[in-house]
Prior knowledge:
single chain; 3 helices; two-stranded antiparallel ribbon; DUF4295
Amino acid sequence: xxxxxxxxxxxxxxxxxxxxxxxxxxxxxxxxxxxxxxxxxxxxxxxxxxxxxxx
Length: 55
């Protein structure tokens, strides 16, 4: 019974899983000119817009 229920759950979420693959988490490190410390900027963006994030 349990195996059947988990199999059905996977089938229902295939559309959501396919949509999730077009998003990516991007982490950009920036160095402060004043202190020299690094700060990190994180965003979840569409994979087509990744190059724009680093400009």
